[in-house]
Design a protein that fits this description.
Structural class: alpha+beta
Low-confidence stretches: none
Strand content: 5-15%
Mean pLDDT: 78
Largest sheet: 5 strands, antiparallel
Radius of gyration: 48 Å
Helix content: 55-70%
Number of helices: 9
Strand order of the largest sheet: 3-2-7-1-8
Number of strands: 8
C-alpha cells in the first residue's frame, strides 16, 4: 500500500471518530430569559462586591435589582428646598379652605331663604338703587337751575336755605315730620342689649331712614349706645328703658322689609325672647332736638 492510501485511510478514521463523539455529547441548550436575568444580577452583585473590596470595605450580602430599588427609595431623603415647597403648598391649601368656608357661612342665610324672602331682598336693593338715582337727578336739576336762572344769586340763596333745612334735619337741630314707621321692642326678659339696638339703627339708615328718634333721644351721625349697669341702655349718655320705641321717617315700603329680612333685626330680637312690632304710618313726628355744636377745629373753606 502506498503512502497516499495510508494517509487517506487515516483521515477517514479521524472523521468517523469525531462524528461518533458529537452523537454521544448532549445538544447545547440556550439559557432561558429568567436564567439570563439571574445571571446578570449575579454578575452585577459580584461587581459591587469587587468594588467594595477595592474600597477596603467588607462585601455585604448580594441584593437583587428590586431590593436595591426599594433601598434607594426608603427611607426618603428630604432636602431643604422640598421642605420649603411643601410648607408653601400647605399654607396655600389652608388659605383656600378658610376662604371657601367663610364664603359658605356668609351665603348660608340666603341659600336657605324662601323664594318670597329673596324676592323681597331684591326689591329692597332695587329701591335703594332708585333712591340713589333720584338723588343724583335732583343734584343735576339743581345745577341746571343755577346755570339757567336769570337771577343766579337769588336761586343760590333759596338752595342754600333748603340745604340748611335738610342738614338741620340730619343734624337733629330741627324737628321733622313725614311718612315712616314705628318700631316697638318689648324686652320683658331683659335680654336686649345695646348692640342689638345699634344694629336696628344701622339697618334703618341703610334702608333710607332720614330721621330717627328712640325714646325721646334724637339719633344723629355721632350717636353711641352702651349697656347700663343693672339693665337698660343709654343713648348718647341718656338712659332709656324698655319698651324701646323707634320713630323713623322714611319710605315705609323700604323700612319695614329691611327689618324683616331672614336673619335680620326682627328675627335676632325674637331669638332673645323679645316682642317686636312694626307699624306703618303716613305721618311720623320726630321732635326731639339736639343742640348745635360749634366745631373746635373745622372751618368753612368757602371764601
Amino acid at each position: 500500500m502506498s503512502d497516499n492510501d495510508k494517509s487517506g485511510a487515516s483521515d477517514k478514521q479521524a472523521d468517523a471518530g469525531e462524528n461518533r463523539l458529537r452523537e454521544e455529547l448532549p445538544e447545547e441548550v440556550s439559557p432561558t430569559p429568567s436564567e439570563a436575568s439571574e445571571a446578570s444580577e449575579a454578575s452585577e452583585a459580584r461587581a459591587v462586591d469587587a468594588a467594595a473590596v477595592t474600597a477596603g470595605e467588607e462585601p455585604g450580602p448580594s441584593l437583587t435589582g428590586r431590593q436595591r430599588l426599594v433601598k434607594g427609595l426608603w427611607p426618603p431623603r428630604v432636602t431643604r428646598a422640598q421642605l420649603i415647597v411643601a410648607l408653601l403648598l400647605f399654607g396655600l391649601g389652608f388659605g383656600l379652605a378658610v376662604q371657601v368656608a367663610s364664603t359658605s357661612d356668609s351665603d348660608g342665610a340666603l341659600r336657605g331663604a324662601r323664594q318670597e324672602d329673596l324676592v323681597r331682598i331684591l326689591d329692597e336693593l332695587d329701591d335703594r338703587t332708585q333712591r340713589l338715582e333720584d338723588e343724583k337727578q335732583g343734584l343735576e336739576d339743581q345745577r341746571t337751575e343755577l346755570e339757567n336762572s336769570s337771577d343766579q344769586a337769588e336761586e343760590a340763596r333759596k338752595q342754600t336755605v333748603e340745604k340748611e333745612r335738610q342738614l338741620g334735619i340730619l343734624a337733629g337741630t330741627v324737628a321733622a315730620q313725614g311718612p315712616g314707621i314705628t318700631l316697638t321692642i318689648e324686652d320683658t326678659k331683659g335680654t336686649v342689649e345695646a348692640d342689638m339696638l345699634l344694629d336696628a339703627i344701622q339697618e334703618l339708615r341703610a334702608a333710607g331712614a332720614e330721621a330717627i328718634q328712640v325714646n325721646g333721644v334724637r339719633v344723629v351721625a355721632g350717636t353711641f349706645l352702651a349697656d347700663e349697669d343693672g339693665g337698660g341702655v343709654s343713648v348718647d349718655g341718656n338712659k332709656i328703658d324698655a319698651p324701646y320705641r323707634f320713630k323713623v321717617i322714611g319710605k315705609p315700603q323700604d323700612l319695614e322689609p329691611a327689618l324683616n329680612i331672614p336673619g335680620g333685626v326682627v328675627q335676632t330680637l325674637e331669638k332673645e325672647q323679645a316682642t317686636v312690632t312694626v307699624e306703618r304710618a303716613d305721618k311720623i313726628v320726630v321732635d326731639a332736638l339736639r343742640a348745635a355744636k360749634q366745631p373746635d377745629y373745622a372751618r368753612s373753606s368757602s371764601q
